[in-house]
């Protein structure tokens, strides 16, 4: 498909917010062009459907609003702020993995890849522990593929429920600020301006999605990769300094974000196709990352590739994912803890693996594994 039809229209493609029909972008060159050209392609792709609150956040904004939003978020969602929680994240990893050691098996997704980022982003935002499971349930409903009217309504309902919940959290922090990201956002200013209520709510929802889904998918995809390429896990254990290269190759092969969306701002031509103003474009990052014109032998896992910077795993241009620092720090801590306690990670024999049914997320909903426990974590 990528070689023969790098840009093709699919009238049956349905987005989770209800829009039907979109240009499908499969090649790296065109994907990078669309993602980087904010003068021709807009991020304001979610219609104002009243009940849909997902359109009011950093990832669905254009300049100049985007610059203001990003400047505010950058003050609180940066490594210097996130790294203050490193010891706490390490403690959470230990608490999660410890009860699993005696069993010698687990569903890596449910037992670890969901449990850890759910705790972390909820802690950073100040969400009480007793509400973590409910908030995660809403997020799962939002990112799952929409195929029927019932599923569309369920997605809208989940968006409204998480919005109502976080709106109450925001109001509580206005009255009683704490040391969490919501309180810091409320206090942040750019040129004397603060976020209005609408932008604040959308930004908090966006931060939760970026902080949870990016890391959860990455952790699961790493485990899957280590199971299929045990030599890569062995190399990581002997050479942890290669962490970045290994993670970058996992992200190229299995990008946490499977696709991104844009809307044409004006009529234009793209790879010989006539794109009309208002047309939707679905950019397949996972396809672009497997384009042999950019990545020779694209299906081969090779963490020594010299051009990982060409990967579009976290997007490109001004909308590059702001959740990257948290995802990488959290993942590095998690790998150190997990693989100080276990070895011989394998897919459980005869077990069923389930991929996430989503055009947005690349990941798994079920990944049963077996392992051998080793000594106490130091």
UniProtKB/TrEMBL annotation:
Transmembrane segments: none
Alphabetical list of InterPro entries matching this protein: Cyt_P450, Cyt_P450_B, Cyt_P450_CS, Cyt_P450_sf
Keyword terms of this UniProt record: Heme, Iron, Metal-binding, Monooxygenase, Oxidoreductase
MF-aspect GO terms: heme binding; iron ion binding; monooxygenase activity; oxidoreductase activity, acting on paired donors, with incorporation or reduction of molecular oxygen
Family: Belongs to the cytochrome P450 family.
PANTHER family listed in its UniProt record: CYTOCHROME P450 YJIB-RELATED, P450, PUTATIVE (EUROFUNG)-RELATED
Protein name: Cytochrome P450
Species assigned in the record: Chitinophaga eiseniae
